[in-house]
Structures are given as structure tokens and as C-alpha cells.
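hey so i finally got around to running the thing on that chain from the lab meeting. sorry it took forever, my laptop kept dying and i had to restart like 3 times. anyway pasting the input first so we r on the same page abt which one it is
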Amino acid sequence: MTSLENVALWHERDISHSSAERIILPDSCLALDYMLSIFTSTMKGLKVYPENMRRNIELTQGVIFSQRVLLALIDKGLIREQAYKLVQDNAMKAWEKRKSFLSLLEADRRITARLTKLELNSLFDYTYYLKYVDDVFRRLGLAKARQGRKAGKAG
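ok and heres what got predicted. didnt touch it at all, straight out
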């Protein structure tokens, strides 16, 4: 609540700001320390099950890649609203009927008129989302990510 005291005169500076900040800054540091402590203990006990992660992703029938399909259609000159409708129709059908989103897209002439089968398949590559992992690890000063990642396609 103390931080709200600074809001009233956000464009000015007076002695009241300094007194509020003497409370805010230490409290913020203590709150951050607590959050980091909780986060660290959570991360120490974290168990990752790649097989379960892949299985959960596959439960989406490939609908998880709908944004990439939408953007590819827009890049091919389709108006966003039209692209959204095409993707949504196929995504809903895939979800409700438990059918492969990729198969439905490949069977839809409205989609294949804009995207080739090869282009569609490239949009369903899991590794696309992992392309910056090693860069992030490097920037954090951590060892490279495990290189044992398997390329994968959905659909």
C-alpha cells in the first residue's frame, strides 16, 4: 500500500516520495528474496518427463500449431479474418472429432490452394519452438541444452 502513496504525485517529487521509498525498496527486496527462495526450491525438486510432455502435446491433434498455420496463410496474402476462419473451422473439427489437424488441412482445398503439402508439414515441426534454447542458455551462462532432442512432427 505504501507504493500507492507515490501515485498521487507521479509527475512531481517531494519529501513524501523519499519516505515512501524507504519502505518500498526494502519490502521489494524482501519480497523478491522470498520469491526466489520458493522458485529455487521448486526447481530443485522439478522432474521433467519428456514422454509425458510429448503425449500431452499430441493430445491436441496438432491444433497447437494453428497459429503457425494462420500466420503462413496471412503471409500468402489471405486476409487475417479469412485465414482465422479457415484455421478455426479445421481446428474445431480436429478437436471435436479427434482427427489430425494436419490431415484436415491437407484435405481442405481452401488451404491447399495457398499452402503446399511441404509447407504445411514444415509448420508442424516441434523443433521450431526450440530453436533459441541454446542461445538463451548461453546468455544465462549455463551449459548448452541437452543435444538429445529428437526432431518431431505432429499430425
